[in-house]
């Protein structure tokens, strides 16, 4: 059984790769199809992309983390005959948070949506930090927005190309370029030593909340070298005095010079700035489960196989991969992976309800 792979459009670039929107269609199953964001990397970046896959596999099933499909990188050819590797990810139809901001006047989001998104970002960091990782590149380009049947929108963390284990130092860090991730979102300690600690991501959260209120990225228009100098002098991105008091206090907490005073992602979920997580009705929960099960079933039916033979590239609108579609062999190992996804999905719902109960009980 073969599936057809159709290039739809270029979505953008991430760490160590570029992303295409691809539609997979199974002609042997009544033309069933689904859209996937495919992250492509060249051979020299194989290790980085494969490491991102392994982290996403470990985080698979958590609702605030982008979902990857399959346990291996797919292999193909670019139209220039270069070998490329592919990571299949769920597609966010609303795009990145950065792009989403452009749909609002002056790129400023309504306050209720800012609070919802902030809560979702922190929930994602609770999952990431709980597994001993620091994302190291929390910015509006790396947060993806999805439509939702249970709320206005859902937000998920993506692009783990710069992700490090707690205590690691980024290979790219140097005294003359002292950054773990994107400079505009980095804290003072990044300039000092480049060690990845969980509190590094919390400074970035403060930058993101400020950006959603003002429509402008932190340190906009400031040279990278000047950002480093300002951070060394104890400066932080300017917080507008017109912001609500709880919002200012939340951002100031994230911008604490002493990283320990920022607390943890879990503790910030209980800040007065954030509302408790909305309750999920039983019927809505079943709908979410049904949609996920349906998607996994379609993925299984398509049986996208790993391509091991390299074919001559042909002129096509697709910038990467040979025309022959990808397909996974339905071996017992792949079946066990799907069963694990379903198991983790159930665990994720349990974690959400545990978090709901914790928030609710502390606010009573």
Notes on the structure:
Keywords: ATP-binding, Kinase, Nucleotide-binding, Serine/threonine-protein kinase, Transferase. This is Protein kinase domain-containing protein. Belongs to the protein kinase superfamily. It comes from Brassica campestris. The protein is of the alpha+beta class. Helices cover 37% and strands 18% of the residues. Helix 3 (111-130) runs antiparallel to helix 5, helix 5 (198-214) packs antiparallel against helix 7 and helix 9 (282-302) packs antiparallel against helix 10 (332-363).
Keywords summarizing the entry:
single chain; 364 residues; alpha+beta; Phosphorylase Kinase, domain 1; Transferase(Phosphotransferase), domain 1; 2 domains; five-stranded antiparallel β-sheet; two-stranded antiparallel sheet; 10 helices; protein kinase activity; Prot_kinase_dom; ATP binding
Blueprint of the fold:
Elements: E1 4-14, E2 17-26, E3 32-42, H1 46-58, E4 68-77, E5 83-90, H2 97-101, H3 111-130, E6 133-134, E7 143-147, E8 153-157, E9 164-165, H4 188-192, H5 198-214, H6 224-232, H7 245-254, H8 265-268, H9 282-302, E10 304-305, H10 332-363
Antiparallel strand pairs: 1-2, 2-3, 3-5, 4-5, 6-9, 7-8
């Amino acid at each position: 059984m073969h599936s057809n792979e159709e290039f739809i459009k270029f979505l953008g670039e991430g760490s160590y790769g570029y992303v295409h929107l691809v539609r997979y269609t199974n002609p042997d199953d009544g033309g069933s199809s689904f859209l996937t964001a495919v992250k492509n990397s060249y051979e020299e970046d194989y290790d980085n992309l494969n490491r991102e896959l392994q982290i996403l596999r470990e985080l698979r099933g958590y609702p605030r983390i982008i979902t990857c499909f399959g346990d291996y990188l797919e292999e193909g050819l670019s139209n220039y005959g270069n070998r490329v590797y592919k990571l299949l990810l769920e597609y966010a139809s609303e795009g990145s948070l950065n792009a989403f901001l452009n749909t609002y006047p002056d790129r400023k989001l309504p306050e209720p949506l800012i609070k919802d998104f902030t809560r979702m970002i922190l929930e994602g960091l609770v999952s990431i930090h709980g597994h001993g990782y620091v994302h190291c590149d929390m910015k509006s380009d790396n947060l993806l927005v999805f439509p939702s049947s249970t709320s206005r929108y859902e937000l998920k963390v993506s692009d783990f190309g710069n992700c490090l284990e707690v205590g690691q130092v980024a290979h790219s860090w140097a005294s003359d370029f002292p950054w773990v991730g994107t400079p505009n979102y980095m804290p003072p300690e990044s300039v000092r030593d480049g060690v990845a600690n969980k509190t590094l991501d919390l400074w970035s959260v403060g930058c993101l909340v400020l950006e959603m209120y003002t429509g402008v990225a932190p340190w906009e228009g400031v040279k990278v070298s000047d950002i480093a100098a300002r951070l060394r002098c104890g400066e932080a991105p300017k917080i507008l005095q017109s912001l609500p008091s709880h919002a200012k206090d939340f951002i100031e907490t994230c911008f604490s010079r002493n990283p320990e005073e920022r607390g943890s992602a879990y503790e910030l979920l209980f800040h007065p700035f954030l509302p408790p997580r909305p309750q999920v009705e039983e019927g809505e929960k079943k709908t979410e489960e049904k949609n996920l099960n349906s998607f996994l079933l379609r993925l299984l039916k398509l049986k996208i196989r790993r391509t091991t033979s390299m074919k001559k590239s042909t002129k096509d609108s697709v910038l990467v991969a040979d025309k022959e579609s990808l397909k996974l062999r339905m071996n017992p190992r792949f079946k066990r992976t799907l069963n694990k996804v379903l198991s983790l999905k159930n665990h994720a719902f349990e974690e959400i309800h545990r978090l709901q109960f914790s928030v609710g009980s502390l606010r009573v």
